[in-house]
Amino acid sequence: MAEEEATAVERNGDDQSETSDYTSKDEETEDYRRGGYHSVRIGDTFRHGRYVIQSKLGWGHFSTVWLAWDTHNSRYIALKVRKSAQHYTEGAMDEITILKLIDEGDPEDKKCVVKLLDHFKHSGPKGQHVCVVFEYLGDNLLNTTEEFLFIWLKKFAFIF
């Protein structure tokens, strides 16, 4: 039980996961510095334990995105953790403003735009990171495309 409680404790560690191997699909490790990415590990919690990290969904130049469990609403969400430099913070706040305006203008959800569920700031050793919570819509398009291509090549390789 103590191990489970220790896993659920919010960590702000500055090292990357020991279990993940760096690949070309991963962000550059040198971007894990002040002003850069926040180190996130499976089991980390955000927003006072509300969001529990399950797995990594992807990354981009501005942020990493994680599948997390929302303990208040018993559902999966996508948690975007922005880099902490000021210009990334400003961009994140602009994104939040735009998503709120879209949501207000589409109360019946007819425009099919991903829903902003929550946002907050998270302090860590690399600075203060804006975190944006979205509804979870599934795997990222790059992974889906690569999986489809692999299946297609495997299925039709005999033609070549």
TrEMBL record:
<keyword id="KW-0067">ATP-binding</keyword>
<dbReference type="GO" id="GO:0000245">
    <property type="term" value="P:spliceosomal complex assembly"/>
</dbReference>
<dbReference type="GO" id="GO:0005524">
    <property type="term" value="F:ATP binding"/>
</dbReference>
<feature type="domain" description="Protein kinase">
    <location>
        <begin position="51"/>
        <end position="160"/>
    </location>
</feature>
<keyword id="KW-0547">Nucleotide-binding</keyword>
<dbReference type="InterPro" id="IPR011009">
    <property type="entry name" value="Kinase-like_dom_sf"/>
</dbReference>
<keyword id="KW-0808">Transferase</keyword>
<feature type="binding site">
    <location>
        <position position="80"/>
    </location>
    <ligand>
        <name>ATP</name>
    </ligand>
</feature>
<dbReference type="InterPro" id="IPR051334">
    <property type="entry name" value="SRPK"/>
</dbReference>
<dbReference type="GO" id="GO:0004674">
    <property type="term" value="F:protein serine/threonine kinase activity"/>
</dbReference>
<dbReference type="InterPro" id="IPR017441">
    <property type="entry name" value="Protein_kinase_ATP_BS"/>
</dbReference>
<dbReference type="InterPro" id="IPR000719">
    <property type="entry name" value="Prot_kinase_dom"/>
</dbReference>
<feature type="region of interest" description="Disordered">
    <location>
        <begin position="1"/>
        <end position="31"/>
    </location>
</feature>
<keyword id="KW-0723">Serine/threonine-protein kinase</keyword>
<keyword id="KW-0418">Kinase</keyword>
<protein>
    <recommendedName>
        <fullName>non-specific serine/threonine protein kinase</fullName>
        <ecNumber>2.7.11.1</ecNumber>
    </recommendedName>
</protein>
<dbReference type="GO" id="GO:0050684">
    <property type="term" value="P:regulation of mRNA processing"/>
</dbReference>
